[in-house]
Amino acid sequence: MLLIHSLQLNCFDINSSVTYLRQSRQVIFEAWQSSLLNQDQNYICKNIINNKQFSISVQIGTISFISTTLYTYDSSAPLQIKIDCSIPNQCKYIDVNQFSIAMFSLEFPQDKIIISSVAGSLKNRIFDHLGCKMSARATVSLVPGAESIMASTVPVQECRLAPITEIVRVVAYLKTNEISQTPINLTTFGLPLAIQPQYIKYVNTLPFVCATRPDQAVCIGLSKLMMQNEFFSFMGGTRNTINVRYQGGVQIFQQNVRFLFSNVQSAQPQDCFTKTTLTFYDKYLRVEADPGLCNQCSLAYFASFLSFDSAYLRFVMSINEDYSGFTYQNEYLVTDYSFGTKFDKMLTCEMMTDVHACQTQLPLLKQSLRQNSSVFLALVFKKDGAVVYKTLFTPTITETKIQSANVTLFDNKICIYFKPQGNEYVSVQVKMHDVKIDMQILTDTLTNKYCTDLSKSSQLQIQKITRDRLELVASATFGNQVVTDVQVTLIEKGDHPFFIWIIASGILVISFVTIVITNQCSK
Question: TM segments (predicted)?
Answer without folding.
Answer: 498-517
